[in-house]
């Protein structure tokens, strides 16, 4: 938004010309806004590289891996509990040895998943220094952005105040209207019979044209004649 508004102010400030204090003030303000836009683009790049991308990696890899181990741990715990309940109901004959082996295997898998889930969470929490460092980098970039914008706007405000004083102290010009001759427009009085009105023509002849002038309301009428 700052860049777009800055471009508009610069463009139309130039159109008003160097003689217009308002035009020069618009130009100064527009340049300041464009500088703020450049600073904001730099903030976006820094934030993406030093904070958002590492955060995305943490979400899609480290946290995803921990959640995978936790989900696997939950499933193996259910399997282990199920086999223990079956054992508690009692088995007979050859099924006793088979049930014991199943419980032992389920317990080993449960213990393995528990270890992996704990280790993953521990490593994630122990990585605080890196994550906090990334957060500090983001905060510093944001602080620098606002600091630079403050300096830019301070300069803009000072320049605008100077323009205000310049406009206030500028001598008032006397209004001198231009005549038709000054802007190369010929004038001719209408013939009699048209209520004494005056028609102005700019480079065209009202009568005897090959084509009607769409901007001349009299061009489509026949030329009046004296006494006619």
UniProtKB/TrEMBL annotation:
Region ranges (Disordered): 201-228
SUPFAM superfamilies: BAR/IMD domain-like
Localization per Swiss-Prot or TrEMBL: Membrane
Protein origin, superkingdom: Eukaryota
Alphabetical keyword list: Coiled coil, Membrane
UniProt cross-references to Pfam families, sorted A to Z: BAR
Signal sequence segment: none
Primary location class: membrane
InterPro entries in the record: AH/BAR_dom_sf (IPR027267), BAR_dom (IPR004148), Endophilin_SH3RF (IPR050384)
Membrane topology listed for this record: Peripheral membrane protein
Family in the record: Belongs to the endophilin family.
Protein's recorded name: BAR domain-containing protein
Organism whose genome encodes this protein: Clastoptera arizonana
Native organism taxonomy: Eukaryota, Metazoa, Ecdysozoa, Arthropoda, Hexapoda
């Amino acid at each position: 938004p700052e860049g777009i508004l800055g471009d508009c102010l610069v463009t139309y400030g130039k159109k008003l010309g160097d003689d217009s204090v308002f035009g020069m003030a618009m130009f100064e303000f527009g340049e300041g806004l464009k500088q703020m836009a450049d600073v904001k683009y730099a903030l976006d790049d820094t934030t993406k590289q030093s904070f958002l991308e590492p955060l995305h990696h943490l979400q899609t890899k480290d946290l995803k891996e921990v959640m995978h181990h936790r989900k696997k741990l939950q499933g193996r715990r259910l399997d282990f509990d199920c086999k223990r309940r079956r054992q508690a109901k009692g088995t007979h004959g050859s099924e006793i040895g088979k049930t014991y082996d199943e419980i032992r295997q389920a317990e080993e898998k449960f213990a393995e998943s528990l270890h992996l889930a704990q280790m993953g969470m521990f490593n994630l929490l122990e990585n605080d220094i890196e994550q906090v460092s990334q957060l500090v980098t983001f905060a510093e970039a944001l602080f620098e952005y606002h600091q630079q914008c403050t300096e830019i706007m301070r300069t803009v405000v000072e320049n605008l105040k100077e323009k205000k004083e310049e406009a206030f102290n500028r001598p008032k010009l006397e209004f001198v209207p231009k005549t038709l001759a000054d802007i190369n427009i010929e004038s001719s009085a209408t013939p009699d019979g048209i209520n004494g009105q005056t028609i102005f023509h700019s480079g065209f002849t009202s009568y005897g044209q090959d084509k009607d002038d769409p901007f001349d309301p009299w061009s489509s009428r026949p030329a009046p004649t004296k006494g006619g």
